[in-house]
Amino acid sequence: MVAEKTFLDTFMNFLVTNPSSQEIIDFKASRAQAHRLEYLISKSKIEDLTLEEQMEVQATFQANHYVAMFKIRAYSELKVRA
């Protein structure tokens, strides 16, 4: 089962709203997205994930990396303004 909206989709949709630096720092995955990732990680410890599930986990990790980079940049922007 793949979530209808990926974490990356959610973040990209968020970015087009022109959020403030603080809003970027405060951004996080939806509860459903977080639960889905927790489920897949737990499942991977007891059985092999399907290729689709492996790709979903990898895409989420990559998206999380991009989100972290945006948050670092936003935090730096706030520090400069302070």
SSE layout:
Elements: H1 7-15, H2 21-26, H3 31-46, H4 51-81
Number of domains: 1
Quickly count the helices: 4
Name the helicity range: over 70%
Instruction: State Rg.
Output: 15 Å
Uncertain residue segments: none
The class by helix and strand makeup works out as mainly alpha
- Mean pLDDT across every amino acid position: 92
| Topology, number of strands | 0
The outline comes out as elongated
Written as H for each helix and E for each strand, in order along the chain, the element string is HHHH
Q: Major sheet: size, sense and barrel closure?
A: none
Fraction of residues in β-strands: under 5%
Distance N terminus to C terminus? 45 Å
Written description of the protein model:
The chain has 82 residues and is mainly α. Helices cover 76% and strands 0% of the residues. The protein has one domain (7-81). It has four helices and no strands. The termini are far apart. The model has no long low-confidence stretch (mean pLDDT 92).
Q: What is shown here, in short?
A:
The chain is mainly α. The chain has one domain.
Q: What would the keywords be for this entry?
A:
single chain; 82 residues; mainly alpha; 4 helices
